[in-house]
UniProtKB/TrEMBL annotation:
The chain crosses the membrane at residues 22-41, 47-69, 90-119, 139-168, 219-241, 261-287, 294-316, 322-343. The keyword Membrane applies. InterPro entries: DUF318, UPF0718. Keywords: Cell membrane, Membrane, Transmembrane, Transmembrane helix. This is Permease. It is a multi-pass membrane protein. One of its GO terms (cellular component) is plasma membrane. The keyword Cytoplasm does not apply. Belongs to the UPF0718 family. It comes from Albimonas pacifica.
Length: 344
């Protein structure tokens, strides 16, 4: 009997480990809300479901766009940004970094190869700063959660932060700073998904079975990924709107002036989830009184400081360059927040 119970427990634990932890977290939060605050639970769920349904068209466009980019191999164009004169490389790296849908494990071996071949750290810094800030899917999710002005503003911030960071890094290196910036060893592999930067794009991808399969696989995996994180984000949004006092948010990050923007950037660095879950949470904060500039600073600083982005930088460069990356990301977020506040 005891042996049967142990086998049953082991089987249950094995099945539990096979379930994505984000889904478990969503179920746990929903169950806790229903049990602990039954009176407020319907309002929380109404906000979550309504916001999720309103974002579905944007999710669909994002899924299709990313799948198309992966199937055609359009990411191969990125390598061209790191050719030519340094200023040209910085500008193109900042622009391309904010457009390409890369995972951090793909970026690491690519950047390692570029650095090994002598690509300037300034151009790499521009790419590193802009890449986590925006991609096609994040653009559509931001537009669905916060509106087109925020999405366009964040895209502009991605290019601006990357460009400014790259130029400042170039100036610092000319002044003699950041000597020997690279670590003696660098990772040579990734997650097994391979480098997307080789070869030429095949725009008529549907004529090649392998690329059609890539489109289907990417569409399915990205749809599941986005739905999962959107469900969690909108559930948290409902909780924040219901339980976080509007006057508290307004006092910390509301109103005019630079202070709310600085607070938004400082709070965004540790509180950020990812580029897909963050916009709904920021939408809740805006609804509670966060200023638009502080919201933009929150989004920008958080993206630069997210764990995959910071891990990619830390794995390849020494501490001074890593510290510069964090400082440039934070400073760029504050400037982006002020600029967005002025424009809005």
């Amino acid at each position: 009997m005891t042996e049967l119970a142990l086998r049953t427990a082991d089987a249950f634990r094995t099945r539990l480990r096979g379930i994505d932890r984000v889904w478990l977290l969503i179920a746990a939060i929903a169950l806790a809300t229903a049990l602990l605050v039954p009176a407020q639970a319907p309002a929380v769920f109404d906000v979550a479901v309504g916001s999720f349904l309103s974002t579905l068209p944007f999710i669909a466009v994002a899924v299709g766009l990313v799948a198309w980019l992966k199937a055609t191999g359009a990411e191969a164009i990125v390598a061209r940004a790191f050719q030519g004169r340094e200023i040209r490389m910085i500008v193109l790296a900042a622009i391309v970094g904010g457009l390409a849908p890369f995972c951090s494990c793909q970026v690491i071996p690519f950047i390692a190869g570029l650095l090994a071949l002598g690509a300037p750290v300034s151009a790499v810094m521009a790419f590193w700063l802009s890449s986590p800030l925006m991609d096609p899917a994040s653009f559509m999710i931001t537009a669905g959660a916060l509106g087109w002005p925020f999405a366009i503003g964040k895209a502009a911030a991605a290019v601006g932060v990357g460009l400014g960071g790259g130029l400042l890094t170039a100036g610092a290196m000319r002044a003699g700073l950041f000597a020997n910036p690279l670590k003696p060893t660098a990772p040579s592999g990734g997650c097994g998904c391979g480098s997307p930067f080789k070869g030429k794009p095949v725009w008529r991808f549907w004529e090649v079975e392998k690329r059609r399969a890539t489109f289907r696989t990417e569409a399915a995996s990205n749809a599941l990924f986005l739905v999962k994180w959107m469900a969690l984000a909108y559930l948290l949004e409902g909780l924040m709107i219901q339980f976080v006092p509007a006057e508290t948010v307004g006092a910390l990050a509301g109103g005019e002036g630079p202070l709310p923007i600085v607070v938004g950037a400082l709070v965004g660095m540790p509180a950020y989830l990812n580029g897909y879950a963050a916009p709904p949470l920021v939408a809740a904060l805006v609804a509670q009184g966060m200023s638009p500039g502080a919201a933009m600073a929150f989004l920008t600083a958080g993206a630069v400081s997210c764990i995959p982005a910071m891990a990619a930088v830390w794995s390849l460069v020494r501490l001074p360059i890593f510290a510069a990356y964090v400082a440039l990301g934070l400073g760029g977020a504050i400037v982006a927040g002020m600029a967005f506040s002025f424009v809005v």
